[in-house]
Design a protein that fits this description.
The chain is an alpha+beta fold. 26% of the residues lie in helices and 33% in strands. Helix 2 packs across helix 4 and helix 2 packs across helix 5. It is globular, with a radius of gyration of 18 Å.
């Protein structure tokens, strides 16, 4: 493992991608920054983080077993690793909001953005971007954001939190390489926010709101909902949004 600490960068994911073009990096190379000037989340959303208060970092993971069609496995693995890390730190009421946001109660505390490098039909490497709200206590115009400090009332050492997460990431990829994937999928589904509960969704194409019940997540990562009259329909990330 190699750890690269930056004071500021546009994006740790972008920095790591560019560094790969210049150097032969080792597996689990980590780039962390006190400030991300252009951090991104899912669907191109910005990730705002107060300088020096949170963890914004990216991890390089070389892949040997994953085909492109199985890309959602990465979302499960990484979100479970973050969940396990936060659970060990006694963060309360944790869940995973599809596809890979980490919540405490109804508040988002962590976002994940995974970018993959492809070789034929396989994923050759993944750049795993993680933004975790740690010691920030004010979130302007983000009513559903929280942080570890707000949740349990103490200031965390960012290096210690990073070490815990890296340990759990490393372990979960070892488990995956040992073919322990079904227990991980079972754990992911068990932790899924609003699973088996009537919830409000927004159709991102039409803007229409509708009621559905999350029943499972398909192998391709689509969210499987039960609609009116027991109709079952699958949606991808660009089609719907689960409202709080």
């Amino acid at each position: 493992m190699q750890l690269i600490k930056l004071d500021a960068t546009a994006s740790t994911n972008l920095y790591l991608k560019n560094l790969m073009l210049e150097e032969n990096l080792v597996d689990f190379t980590i780039v962390t920054a006190k400030e991300q000037l252009k951090g991104k989340g899912q669907m191109g959303a910005s990730w705002d983080s107060e300088k020096g208060k949170n963890l914004t970092f990216s991890v390089l993971k070389y892949q040997q077993m994953l085909f492109i069609k199985d890309v959602f496995v990465l979302n499960m693995l990484v979100s479970l690793a973050i969940y396990n890390s936060l659970e060990s730190m006694k963060i309360p009421d944790l869940s995973i909001k599809w596809p890979n946001d980490i919540l405490s109660g109804r508040n988002k505390i962590c976002g994940i953005l995974i970018e993959n490098l492809l070789l034929g039909q396989k994923i050759s490497a993944s750049i795993i971007g993680i933004g975790l709200n740690v010691n920030q206590t004010q979130f302007i115009n983000l009513p559903n954001a929280s942080s570890l400090k707000l949740l349990i009332g103490k200031t965390f050492d960012l290096d210690e939190v990073l070490q815990i997460i890296n340990k759990n990431l490393f372990q979960i990829f070892i488990d995956f390489e040992n073919q322990f994937i079904q227990p991980m999928k079972d754990a992911y589904l068990k932790l899924l926010f609003r699973k088996d509960k009537a919830s409000t969704f927004k159709n991102l194409q039409s803007g229409q709101l509708f009621i559905g019940i999350i029943r499972t997540v398909a192998d391709d990562g689509k969210l499987v909902l039960e609609l009116e009259d027991q109709v079952i329909k699958s949606y991808d990330l660009k089609e719907i949004k689960l409202l709080y």
